[in-house]
Specification:
homodimer, Arc Repressor Mutant, subunit A, 2 domains, 7 helices, 6% strand, elongated, DNA-binding
DNA sequence: TAGCGACATGTCAACAGTGGAATGTAGGAT
DNA sequence: ATCCTACATTCCACTGTTGACATGTCGCTA
């Protein structure tokens, strides 16, 4: 149920078409809440039907620019302040760890080494992103920076853990 | 597609019925890959149909004890060594952060304070679990301990991040 | 002016996950 | 002997996610 809130959140900042939103999902939101084209258009239609967003303008090529309604803003605020966050995160990365005993110690260490590399690469990618963005004083900047910092810390944590874990085997 | 591998992984350790597996999912695997009853039974039927597991024994009350086949072991090893782990993790926790600008600074800080508490509680719960288990020398123990350490480090990281983030606002 | 790439939306089938209903049995405690 | 709890499975409806297919237009450039 979070896709709708992601859309409401983006539309709370500025009006946009499905296509605009799709581009945003492909870039900044890709690492947090991926969504594809069909899902976005379907959900926009549902949101409009529920009165949480409305078509504000129509443009060339059938472009429909949506804006958030007061009802939509209320729903967004409700989600932000009242809905308890998901406690569990499905992680196939961690799931594999449970079953590494099936492999040889060498293979298990190789898996953890791959995770180390993956985490290092993720960290570097985010660091480059952080360096390339000019962080002005806007809200999106403040919270975008905070979200990015989470990514940096997460990757650092995972890298250190994977290195530690590899040492624990045999 | 990971539920099937979770089931194969568990069955690689010992034979079990759907009911046994369900109990395992409710306890040790609940924080890594939650699955409910209907999903487990459906997937077991599919796995048996595909020849990756087989009914090894039948017991009282229609109990069917499954065991992993050679084909199933091959699939499990393939998943562990060859299938690249998911790069993105959907996180509604982080998604909210992007949109905290919609709220007042006080409300945003309150959200981060809740996250701090949540992370602290999660850490304590895992710490209690770690203290209560007797870590023998088996593989499950080694890798179970490694997975648990991930949880501890993750919660610690998130708590520190949430505290840092709250300071960044205003 | 012809063509191409980006813009733009809609629909569909398939699979994964959630939650609940229905059904029944075995075995231990009172 | 009865009852309750835990054991045990199956099915169903609904929602969310993925990937592919289908369709068409605008505007720039060669």
């Amino acid at each position: 149920m979070s896709l709708r809130h992601a859309l409401l959140g983006l539309l709370s900042d500025r009006r946009a078409s499905g296509y605009d939103l799709l581009k945003t999902f492909e870039t900044s939101l890709a690492n947090v809440w991926p969504a594809n084209q069909s899902q976005i258009y379907t959900e926009l239609t549902k949101l409009a039907g529920a009165g949480l967003i409305a078509v504000a303008a129509e443009g060339p090529r059938g472009r429909k620019e949506y804006e958030i309604t007061d009802e939509g803003m209320a729903e967004l605020r409700h989600w932000l302040t009242e809905v308890p966050p998901q406690r569990v995160i499905r992680s196939d990365v961690l799931l594999r760890v449970f079953f590494l005993g099936v492999l040889s110690p060498e293979q298990a260490r190789a898996y953890l080494a791959d995770l180390t590399d993956l985490s290092r690469a993720g960290h570097e990618q985010l660091q480059r992103l952080a360096d390339s963005v000019d962080w002005d004083e806007g809200n999106l900047s403040v919270y975008g920076r905070i979200a990015l910092e989470y990514g940096l810390r997460f990757n650092a944590m995972r890298r250190e853990w994977a290195e530690w874990a590899a040492e624990q085997i045999r």
